[in-house]
Specification:
The protein is mostly helical and 498 residues long. It has 2 domains: 378 residues, no CATH class; 45 residues, no CATH class. 74% of the residues lie in helices and 1% in strands. The protein is built from 24 helices and 2 strands. α5 packs antiparallel against α7 and α13 packs across α14. It is globular and about 70 Å long.
Amino acid sequence: MENIIYFTIAWLDPYLMMLVAAGTFAGIYVGAIPGLSVTMTVSILISFTFKWDVNDALALIAGIYVGGVYGGGRTAILLNIPGAPSAIATAFDGYPLAKKGLAGEAIGLTTVMSVIGGLIGVITLAIAAPIISDFAIKFTSREYMLLGIIGIFLIGTLSGEGFAKGAFAGTIGVMIGMIGLDPMTAQARFTYGSINLMGGVPYVVAMIGFFGVTEALVQLDKIKMPYIKQKISKIIPNWSDIKRYFKLVIKSSGLGTLIGALPGTGGDIAALIAYDQAKRSTKNPEVPFGSGAKEGIIAPETANNAAVGGAFIPMLTLGIPGDAVTAIIIGALYIHGLKPGPLLLTETPHLFWFIVGNLTLANLFLLIFGLSGVRIFTKIVECPKAILIPLIIILSGVGAYAIQNNPIHIAWAMVFGVIGYMLKKYGFSVAPIILGVILGPMIDSNYRRAMMGANENVSQFLIDLITNPISLVLVCFLSLMFISQIPLVKNYRKQKFK
C-alpha cells in the first residue's frame, strides 16, 4: 500500500505533475535540436536544481530524460539530422518516409511505440530493481571496488570508441575525481599547492564542461549545415499498424531494456542493435530497409525509450550508471545527500517508487506532447546555430558558477570543455571521463576499506578476492573483459562469427 502511495505522489501533487510535464515538453524540443543532447541538458539543469527539494529536482529530470530520448527521433525523420546518438538508426528509414510525404505518419507511429517501449522499461525497473537490490546488500567493499572498475572499463568496451581509448578516458576521470583532500588522511592530492583545488572538483562542473561546452565546440564545425523543410501530413497512426507491429515492439522493448541495464551502454547502442535485429528478423517488409520501412523506425525508437527504465536498474541497485544521463543523475542524488546503491531501496523506498511514478507519468505526457505541436516544432528546430551555440556556452558558465558561487568553476568548465573537444577530435568518448569522476572516489574509498579489513596485507586482500563467491565472479568477469580485448582473441571471434 505504501508503495502505491509513493508511486502516485507526482500524480496527486499538481506542482510535481507540472514539473514532470514541463520537463517532458522541454526534453522533446531540446533533445530534438542537434547539438543540444539530453545529457548536456540534464548536466546544465542539475546545477540549477541542487538547492531544490529532491522530489522537485527528480520530477523535472525524469521528464527531461524521457522527452529528450524521444525528441532526437523527430529531427532524424524530418531533417535526416539525428538530435541525439540514440536516433541515428531512426534516420535510416525515417527520412526516406519523410521524402515520401509520410513524415507525420512516421512521427505518430514512433510516438505511440516509444511510449509502449518506455512503459515496458519502467515495468521492468519496478520488478527487477528490488530483486537485484536484495542480492546487492550482500556486497562488501571488495565487490563495490570491483563494480566501480568494471563500470569504467565496460563503457570503454561497449561504447564503440575502443577499449584502450575508453580505459584511458576513464583513467582521466578517476584522476580528476581524486583531486582534493584524502577522505581518510586529509592529505592534499593533485592540488599542486592551489587552495582552489583543496575541495576537489564538483561532479557537476566536470559534467557541464565535458558535455555542455564540449558539444557546443563540436557543433561549431557544423554551424553552416543547412536545414531542409518538410511538410507534415497525417500524424495519428492507424490501429491496424499498432497491432501489426506489436510483436516487434515487445521484442525491441525487451532488447532495449536489457541493453540499457548494462552499465555504460544506453539508448544509442540499444537502438542500433534493435534496428539490426529488426532487419534480420523481418522477412517481408513492405519496402526494403533503408528505403522507408516502418519496422526501421519502430525498432530503434521503441528500444531507446525502453532503455531509459533499464538504465535506472544498475544506477539504483548498484550505484553504477546505466548511461551518461544516469551518471549525471547519480551526481544529483549525491548533491541531495543520497547514495545510490542497494541501501537506497531499503532505507528510502519512497524515493525508488517516486522515480518509477515519475517515469510512468513522463511517458504518458510523452504521448500527449508527441502527437501535438508537430507543425510548430518544424519551425523551432530551425534555430540558427550561430545563436544556439553562444547560448549553450553562457548557460554552461552560469550553471558552473551557480553550484558554489565560485568564479573558478567557470574556468574549470571551459577548460574541461576544450579538453573534451580535443579528445573527441581524436576519437575519444567523454562519457568514461564522467564515470571516472563519479566512480573514482568510490573505488578509492572501498579499496582502502577492503585493505583495512585485510589488515593492510596485500596477500590477504588478494586471497579475499578469490575466496568470496561474489568477488570471484566479478574478478572473472573483469578478467574476461581484458582477455576479450586481446587482438588475437578479437580476430578469432570475428572469424568465428562471420
